[in-house]
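Example 9 (inverse folding). The structure is encoded as follows.
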């Protein structure tokens, strides 16, 4: 039986998927879905905004920048079908938050436990760079998701873009510079825990290692259980 939170999140998901508020992003996501990458030429692209995904009773929320053009914009699920997602869900599986280490399609059987995954911006942006106006237009969706996750205790910000957006939402207005492992805690608010983004730029160069990523989610588990 679905929980009230699940029903509310489902309604929010429908609202997100129907959004056309940012003309530049609408044009780009749909162009990518039409033109496709050669490796995925036989696939139907999602080509719409991508809502969050996971456990409605989650104490942990993971927030990235935006869907990848040929990842979430193709598959319709956040962090699914790209190398960043490979890293993220493998780490969540090792930490006990995911039932499997891979995320290749929206119907691949992946389930999250005590964890929800979302992004600041819900449409794939050109060059993976949303504008400040696009970020601010999309932020109310993240705020709504956070409000509906009634057990939320910890938010992992993947990258500086996510950190700045989240700090604004919780009223922190980053007093501390972004850095891997940085924690920001305010009374009555979820703790923000920072991590380098699992982009190829960071993982291929060794700036982010599996051990570093695993420590972030071990710390998230510790913080969420301590706050319960």
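The amino acid assigned to each position is listed next.
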């Amino acid at each position: 039986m679905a929980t009230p939170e699940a029903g509310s999140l489902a309604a929010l998901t429908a609202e997100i998927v129907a959004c056309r508020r940012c003309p530049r992003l609408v044009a780009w996501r749909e162009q990518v879905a039409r033109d496709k990458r050669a490796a995925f030429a036989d696939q139907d692209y999602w080509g719409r905004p991508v809502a969050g995904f996971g456990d409605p009773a989650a104490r942990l929320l993971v927030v990235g920048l935006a869907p990848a053009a040929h990842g979430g914009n193709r598959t319709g699920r956040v962090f699914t079908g790209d190398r960043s997602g490979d890293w993220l869900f493998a780490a969540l599986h090792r930490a006990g938050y995911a039932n499997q280490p891979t995320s290749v399609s929206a119907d691949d059987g992946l389930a999250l436990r005590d964890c929800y995954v979302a992004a600041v911006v819900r449409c794939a942006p050109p060059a993976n760079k949303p504008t400040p106006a696009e970020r601010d237009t999309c932020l109310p969706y993240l705020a709504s998701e956070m409000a509906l996750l009634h057990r939320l205790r910890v938010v992992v910000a993947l990258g500086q873009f996510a950190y700045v957006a989240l700090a604004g939402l919780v009223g922190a207005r980053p007093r501390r510079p972004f850095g891997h492992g940085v924690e920001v805690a305010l009374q009555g608010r979820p703790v923000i825990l920072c991590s380098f983004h699992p982009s190829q730029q960071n993982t291929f160069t060794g700036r982010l290692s599996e051990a570093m990523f695993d420590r972030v989610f071990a710390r998230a588990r510790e913080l969420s259980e301590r706050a319960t």
